[in-house]
Amino acid sequence: MKKKLGLLLVLSSVLLLGACGKESGSSSDTIKIGANLELSGAVAAYGDAELQGIKLAVKEINADGGIDGKKIELVSKDNKSDTAEAASVATSLATKDKVSAIVGPATSGAVKASIPAVTRAKVPLVTPSGTDDAVTVDAKNKVQEYIFRTCYQDSFQGITLANYASKELSAKSAIIIGDNSSDYAKGLTKSFKKQFSGKIVDEVNFTSGDKDFQAILTKIKNMDFDVIYLPGYYNEAGLIIKQAREMGITQPILGADGFGDAELIKLADAKNVNDVYYTAHFSTKADATDKTKDFIAAFKKEYNKEPSAFNALGYDSVYLIKKAAEDAKSTEPAKITTALAKVKGFEGVTGTMSIDKDHNPEKAAVVVQLTNGEESKATIVEPK
Amino acid sequence: MTGILQQLINGISLGSIYALIALGYTMVYGIIKLINFAHGDIYMIGAFLGYYFINEYQLSFLPALLLAMIISAFLGVVIEFLAYRPLRNSARITVLITAIGVSFLIENVMIKLFTANSRAFPQAIEQQKFTFGSLQVSNYQLIIIVTTLILMTLLQFIVQKTKMGKAMRAVSVDTDAAMLMGINVNLTISFTFAIGSALAAAGGVLIGLYYNSIDPMMGVVPGLKAFIAAVLGGIGLIPGAVVGGLFIGIMETVVSALGFSVFKDAFVYGILIIILLIKPSGLLGKNVKEKV
Amino acid sequence: MKLVNRHTFAWLIVIVISFLAIEGLVSVGILDVFYEMALVQIGINIILGIGLNLIIGVSGQFSLGHAGFMAIGAYSVGIVYLDNPTVTGFFLGVLLGLVLSGVVALLIGIPTLRLKGDYLAIATLGVSEIIRIAITNMKITNGAAGISGIPLFDAIPMRQLVFIFVVIVTIIVVNYVRSSDGRATLSIRENEIAAESMGINTTKYKVMAFVIGAMTASIAGGLYASYFNTIVPTNFNFMKSVDILIIVVFGGIGSFTGTFVAALVLGILNTLLQDVSDLRMIIYSLALIIIMIFKPSGLLGTKEFSFSKLFSKKIKKAKKGGSTDGSVRN
Fold first, then answer.
1. Which CATH number fits domain B2-160+190-278: 2.60.40, 1.10.287, 1.10.3470, 3.90.580?
2. Claim: this prediction has a pTM higher than 0.90
3. I need a labelling partner for C151 at 20 to 30 A (CA). Which of A182, A284, B62, B139 fits?
């Protein structure tokens, strides 16, 4: 009997703890923004990083007087890196918390699963890192009315990198080291293959979470090629760069914005990071606006580390919503949506962006070259 | 030819990593027949402790390794005491769920404390490359292979030759009978957890050093692979864990080298199923007749 | 036995009342879109849990690969229904999933079900991972990006469809357990060697339970695909199998009532914990450990709610005028 009582006590306290977190009602002098992020599970690293950027943006905006005098109230929820859960969180943010806009999820699959929920509730969703081309348009190429993003879409980056490889690096042949288990990597591979004028010598694959790449690297070591195209995130890319360079593979390595984290250089060990190029969202070398510099300083002050691409994209997503809310002079989701679609020349830390007809941000990319782990050159690539 | 040899070296070094984790796994399984899902997480904790001692306290590698092992051993004992001991006489599947719960808990507390990002492990030992013709071996690879072999021998010695080892074997055969013979079952199981967890931690630190990358979710996949290695080699058998680990490592490398890297896990599972069907007790295991 | 007796009639009333209750709550707006989504998820989990409980709780075989069969169902519906977005298309997809998962379960079950305990668990885990890796690398399944834009089944609201399937699956599984085949399957759980020496073809009944379990999982997968519109291979990884296993063990292995209760409790817990964001999984795992320690046999143990027992208890009470202690089956 005692046992049962104990169990009951524990259960009820757990439930209570759960219920306590609930905020009820919103007053008219605040604007609610929801965050639907991967805070636990397989890709928690991305959601976590975006939440840091989001929190910093919210803090700054609120300290600065809010949006048209209204303070932002951030409601952040965890979607466990699960698509169904992302749909559920999106619904709960839109219908229960009645947020004005939602930031996240971080991954394309989770965004796609959230589309019906936000469309039904007519609440705009801004994803900081859902890069799949099919996120903002449906199968018939019709734009998804409520879905926006602050990141590049896969095709843009793949094309940019393919051009860079053939024009700047005069590469005639490439090897692709792809991640078959990530749609991000697959999307980037697809558009690179389409655009690259040279020959694709071989395509090898790994699975996210792998740490040992000796087998595939030994395989390509003796092949004849000019560049390695490595679409992937910094956690695996850092290790691949390290293992490749230590093995004596010296060809240039090209990557996408997933490289954009200071941890890449630490994982690879700075001395190995030579002849590495990637499409960055911001670079201290090229065209850093005052905003970018301020952001980097503020981020360092708040979190005591260099901001990553994810941090910056999360940060920009909040400011993009702020801009739209100010343009719309309203906190109503529908009006913010209309305003979001019309945003032109919004100055974010990841570039000056205009939302195009497919709800993608038109913004320049910076191709950064890393030498000994330091940025040695930055080339701006304007959107076509 | 050198390509093949190099791949073999790659396979052995990957395999000895699985073997290292599998050693602790197989011991814990051998004694209480529990698929200890939290084992991979203790391996992660070990790596983080090593990271912390080297980074924050500027300890050199060996003391950091030993401290990580001691603390993880303690953690393993505490987990067993709090979460598994109350369930000693429950259905095994119940304990399994508890183990999954413990694993979730450790992962998510670590995410909460350290974020889910991967971080670079401090390079406490300078990496060196040895080249033989066109073959390459790093001192890290050698350290891992040698450590695995030493630990295997040491464990085999403990289990086969010491009094505690005898107690462990007795408990694993029949807990009740062991108790009647005056063996302190609780102490024996705690001891096993301590050793198993210390081994996991050692693996975590070494692998952190080798790959230069640690994160709170790093234990999930190696934990699963290590269990497969243990089953493949013959669960509960210490040499079996090493054989199974090396087998999987080489297998994965061969499959990747042949260009089927995306299917490497599928191959591993496929081979596992085939071996289980032909020889359910694993590569080194003896078939035990079931008594009625 | 008549098809309609007192007990089946009582159950029919329960089904109708819960259906009407849900519809009523929806129509007055208490069950809004969010809770409806939670409810659909609970329903899908019940179907998954019941199927796995048949394998684990009734036939006593430890499977860790339920998510693989769910994936087969989900992708069948995803592909077929996207191609042919009609009611027929949906049911063709479900049918395809049933056939495929049944065949796969049969092919895998016959050899692997000879294995015991943890060996079987690891083998089934392997099978489901192989299925997932295959899906990740196939063209028709669109690889890692998965299939999106799968239409929502709209002939009737999804909650009703899921409700109907929960009822159908439960009736089929529970009746199977009560049939002579089911009794034979139960005997395997109790003592496989004894069952075999009584002349029961243990492999046959183990495989039967496995195939039925797999097919129910494919139904759940199909419903999932249509309701959430998007499916990606990582939805069906090892963690999904673990989630389903948790429902079964939490509710009580072998108790279908327990599976219902566990799916409900965990579903509600999950929904409430959404608000605590990053503490969510910590609280969830703590709750899991504590409940397992305090109640190792699960919420209901092997107890089963049944009207016949309720009725007979009343009769007994009336006759004896005394109380009987709980309706424990074993």
1. 1.10.3470
2. no
3. A182
